[in-house]
Predict the 3D structure of the following.
Amino acid sequence: MSGKPAASGARRRAASDGRLASLLLFLPPALLLFTVFVVLPIGEAAWYSGFNWNGFGSPTRWIGFDNYRFVFDSRGFGTAFRNNLLIIAVSLVIQLPLALTLALMLADKFRGSVALRMLFFLPYVLAEVATGLIFSFIYDGNYGLLASIYRTFGAEAPHLLASTQTSMLAILVVVVWKYFGFHMMLFIAALQGMDRNLVEAARIDGASRWQVLRYVVIPLLYPTIRLSVFFAVVGSLQLFDLVMPLTRGGPADSSNTMVSFLYIHGVSRMRVGYGSAIGVILFVICVTFAITYKRWFMRDE
Amino acid sequence: MNDTSIAGRRPLDLVLVYKVLFLALVAAFVAVPLLATLLGGFKTLGELRTNPFGLPQTWEWQNYTDILLSKRYWQLLWNSFVIGSFTVVLTLIVASMAAFAFAHIHFFGSSMLLSYLTMGLLFPAATAILPLFIKVRDLGLLDNYFGVILPQVAFSLAMSILLLRRFFKDLPHELLEAALVDGCSYFAFFRHVTLPLSRPILATVGTITFVHSWNSYLMPLVMLNSEQLYPWPLGIMIYQGEFSSEWHLILAFITLTLLPTILLFIFAQKHIVAGLTAGAVKG
């Protein structure tokens, strides 16, 4: 009886004694790294975006919001922004339904289902740069696979990546190739964690396959679908590594994404103010999307 | 009776046929580019043009052996390996310490600090790449492995801390309380109890971080100048530039650089998928 409060008192003292010292040991490395390499640069991007600066010395030529005006006035950035929207659209309209269909087919184990899952997931694990190079071989007008298909039909081989009309289309195919497996795996994980009794109950009640899918399985998948949409949009906004080996944003800035536009027109020419302004715009888009989406669609999670 | 059962089965079989056809189509869509790359590396340039799909008439092993015997190839893999390993080790140390504090030590402002650290999930590293370049330059880390490693660690902290914290929280808290009463320090408990118990999640976070680092392109592109320091995604772009349309060599080079990735994928597949789905639950 009397030992109990004493023990808990000792316990509390022991806990509070070590607590502060431990916090001072555990937290600073993460806080320091994160602040120096993530948070400060974001703040500095906002600051630098007010200057005309090539990165040498310190920024002195303050030009206010002119960099933002230059960005919005350039033809290239508008195209890049539209391309990002196009990537988002293809991800949502083609990629996610494809991933969901495949997940529904492959969630149950049968001969070859695990092998197919792994095959479909494999492109996601490969580096974007290698993927881009593989497809620039496939699209190559002289040696590529597509060119040889055209030749067997006696047609002139197109140079898909060299035309402003088709460069973006060619990239979109690679985007689907590379990322549908990732979403498929998310859906498979969700399907496997699903309560099968609900499906069976619906079957016993006489629901058809389609009705079960439409009214039981898909609603149960909503949290995962919402998450998948979130990943698809945020990923689409970041796309860069695939674009560089395929087209470097060309021809004539037709296949840039916002990040490749930032790299080509800001980083490689060290236009720090201009590039930072693009970075800030991208930051605002990403954060606005993330916060709005979480508030509206992912409140329950 | 017999008739109805056959009639009942026939549409089902048709569904099965469509299903198999569809799966075969998607499988071909994924596999053909990969197989064409692998096989293309065994062909001559002339054959690549006339016979891009089929098996090579004569297997040009030399395309591959020349690359395997070059210093360049191994240098690229070594650079990627060094950058990846340091990124993983630093991420695991720093993230697990912070995650432990958030999981087990109650303190004022804990949830605010956690939101601060996980803000990194919301935006890509590219948004601040120019100021980041200037920071790394001012710290004297430009053209140095650590100019790539430290920002990569910083950007991987958010997801790593979230995953680790959730795992740590599931470990019995009473164990820690008992240990503290017995005079054990938080750090000793973390070091001798939490970490050994957390091997699965550490492996998962480590694998994911390694794959990210191994494949990363933008950060090394901006932070490194010397070709001797280039990781393989940068090196392969240079190689492709040099050999512009000698696709048989480029394809062999791509295949050989993808080999470690694919081996890692085969061995660590469980951890990669686990991390993906665990990360997904929280977002």
About this structure: The mean pLDDT of chain A is 91. The two ends of chain A are 44 Å apart (CA to CA).
